[in-house]
Each structure stands twice: as C-alpha cells, then as structure tokens.
Design a protein that fits this description.
The protein has one helix spanning 2-21; strands spanning 28-36, 39-49, 54-63, 73-87, 90-104, 108-123, 128-139, 146-159. The chain is mostly beta strands.
Length: 160
C-alpha cells in the first residue's frame, strides 16, 4: 500500500507541469449529422486546444440500424488528437484516435480499435463554422475486424 501511495504521489507531481501548460478549458464543440446506409447518423466532438495547431478530446458517433440493408447499429465512443491548419476562412484537420464500438446487427459485440477523421470547416464568424468530414472506424478484435464504418457527415463547429 505504501508503494502504491508513493507511486501515486510521484505521478501527481510529474503531471503538475502538464496541467499548468494546458488551460483544460473546452474550446470547441462539433455536432455532426448525416444520412448513412442504415439511416440517420449523428455525432459529436468535444475538443480542448493545446496549441494553435493541436487539440485533444473525445468523440461520440451513433449510426442507425437497417437489417434489410445489413447495416448495423453502431455506438462509438473514444478519445482523439487533432492537428489542424487554418488557411483563410478554411480549417483543414486530421484526427486519429482510439475507442470502443458497440456493434449490433444480429448479435451485440463490443469492439476496440482506431479511428481516423479528416475534414474541412469554413468559418461563418469567429465562433461558428460549417463543414464536412469523413470518419473511419476500425476494429482490432472480435468477429468483425478491419474497417467497420466509413461515413461522410456534415458538421457545425462552435468555439466556446
């Protein structure tokens, strides 16, 4: 128990400089929507800017099920980092990450794997932007391995 307490104290002290560098304040919220092979597709990102070109945060995606077309219901939740470049009113970004995927077609499975999102956002004003993005969800385990979902969604970005 003393060893655990000592390791916890060292880890806490080691991360203090990192916490001081980042404000920890949410800086962007992105809401996605679109139509997929299963029907309605919704999503959201919650991002904190670390530097002018890097941010980190979490993502959530929900895809409808259509048994006739063989489209599974998918609920994906994970963490990602985002690199972005601003050129004029446009912001281009690439966002790799990892997460859990709840996959339900004939049976329910919990999958884990990487995700890759890239997109383009046009600024409407300093706080709101409209754009489009492509999200790819992959699985490394379970019966379904490889590319699970590949979708294009429209999005609205809010800077907080």
């Amino acid at each position: 128990m003393k060893l655990f307490a000592a390791l916890f104290a060292v880890a806490t002290l080691a991360t203090q400089p990192l916490a001081a560098q980042s404000s920890g304040r949410p800086t962007q919220m992105v809401i996605q929507a679109g139509i997929d092979e299963g029907g309605l597709a919704l999503g959201g990102d919650f991002l904190v800017n670390d530097t002018a070109t890097e941010s980190y945060g979490g993502y959530l995606r929900l895809y409808s099920k259509d048994e006739d077309k063989g489209a599974p219901a998918i609920f994906a939740l994970g963490a990602s980092g985002r690199g972005h470049v601003k050129v004029g009113i446009f912001e281009y970004y690439l966002s790799p990450g990892f997460g859990l995927i709840h996959y339900n077609l004939d049976e329910t499975e919990l999958l884990f794997g990487p995700t890759l999102t890239y997109g383009l956002t046009a600024d409407i004003d300093p706080y709101i932007g409209l754009g489009v993005e492509n999200t790819k969800l992959y699985s490394w385990m379970g019966e379904h391995k490889g590319l699970i979902k590949d979708t294009f969604l429209a999005h609205v970005r809010f800077r907080l």
